[in-house]
Amino acid sequence: MSGATTRTRNWSSVLKQNLPNLLAVGLDPIHLAIVYEYGTWGRRNTGSKLLRGLIACVNAHDSRIPARCWGRFFQGEDVVSLTAEEQIMRRKIVSGALPLTLALRIKERIEVGAPLLSRLEFIEGLAAIAALHKEDMQETVPGPN
User: pTM for the complete prediction?
Assistant: First the structure.
């Protein structure tokens, strides 16, 4: 084994040990908004802007909030089950059946740049977008997206 390969492997293990969630950087969190816009024929509309704002909240950092506030980082195994409340809200994403008054309240709570404090807040945000922009959710997109 060459010296360069050994150094790379050691560097990689040091990174994994000290930055266990570094993988998240490569998972492309903005991809969801890109696919949304693909589904609306490349248009950035109010729904995609709201989704981008919600994703900005996921990516936001506040040193006063612990990194584990959302729970353990998903690494492809040992899926953490949704709570009953999260399951209900997730069904509202699929159906778009969140009452509009609640969807508007959730939309108003989304403060771009301020971190979300729980997985439920993110799911609620998605449900609000689905309810407020039903026409976008009903688009049929050709291809793998």
Answer: 0.77
Domain boundaries, the chain: 30-61+82-139
CA dihedral 20, 22, 23, 29 (to 10 degrees): 130
* Burial zone of 60 (CB within 10 Å; 0-12 exposed, 13-18 middle, 19+ buried): middle
Q: Name the residue among 71, 86, 80 with its Cα closest to residue 127.
A: 86
Distance (Å, whole) CA 7 – CA 12: 9
* CA–CA distance, 90 with 112 (Å, rounded to integer): 22
Q: Is 46 helix (H, G, I), strand (E, B) or coil?
A: helix
Place of tokens 């024929």: 41
Span 59-112, pLDDT tens digits: 888 888 887 777 777 666 777 889 999 999 999 999 999 999 999 999 999 888
Residue 114 gets which letter from DSSP?
S
